[in-house]
Amino acid sequence: MARIRKFVSYRRIERPYTRVSKYKEKSFIRMNPNLKVIAFETGTPKKKFQYTLNLISKVDLQIRDNALESAKQTSNRVLEKGIGLGAYHLKIKPYPHHVLRENPIAAGAGADRFSTGMQKSFGKPIGVAAQIRRGDTIFQISVDKANLGLAKTALTRASKKLPGSCTIQTTENK
User: Fold this and answer.
1) How confident is the model over 28-54, as a mean pLDDT?
2) pTM value?
3) Most exposed: 4, 7, 53, 114, by fewest CB within 10 Å?
4) C-alpha span between 89 and 146 (Å, rounded)
């Protein structure tokens, strides 16, 4: 299986290039890659909690769906082991809509025979990402006052898995 391309090439937010062709079927991306985020909410969503903690982005960037899932699993593991499933609610706020494309260029001996170069460079879908603006909430955790420190630890661990820098904002629910 091929390795995932480094995300440095996709990190900046840009309006996706939309192909306009005289042939209608060539103007669209043929398929959407499968989403790697399994569940956007974990814990107990119905219960009212005293505090809500938000992980807020400091920069405009794109976050790939596998990075969101990795950060969710890390923070969920901390919360589940520390306080149990019934004592928190974790939610991923952005949805990865943006389709990432790659124009595969062959390298090596004889590559010029089957490489199209920039002739048909629209690219094949390789994954999806969520576009996040500065000040947007990425993760939201609701907990009671006794578990506030553990929730901050969980969000700190989640931020280490994400590109860019984030801050944690705490608000009291009334």
Assistant:
1) 91
2) 0.85
3) 114
4) 14
